Amino acid sequence: MQQKVVIKLPLNGKRSSCKAMQIAVGVPGVASAALAGEDKNQIEVTGDGIDVAALTMLLRKNVGFAELVSVAPVSEDNKSGDDNKSGDDQSESEKEVAVLQIPWYYNYPYGYGPGHMYVIRDQNPASCSIM
């Protein structure tokens, strides 16, 4: 599934924008990368199976502060009308997601055990030594 990722960067000059583009294109799964936004301070990456967290971390390490703006699937509007109808049926069936039932285990804390009782006996029962 193709996805479109938009990351906001502080691209102050040509050098930082070139560096950001090189890093973005070097990530596996990237099909294209382009600068976007009013001030060309956003990088728009499209591809299949992009690790968005790894891409953002690489940009933070090498370029500077990077903010993940959006991750969205790419819509394909180039199909004809007949193909869209069959594609819609397929996409509706793909939208149905089975909910995985996970058993919930309750954790009951262990209570404190009974206190230990020790009997201490005096070794010399006759406390008077004069007698």
UniProtKB/TrEMBL annotation:
This is HMA domain-containing protein. PANTHER family: OS04G0464100 PROTEIN. It comes from Rhododendron williamsianum. Residues 76-95 have a biased composition (Basic and acidic residues). Residues 75-95 are annotated as: Disordered.
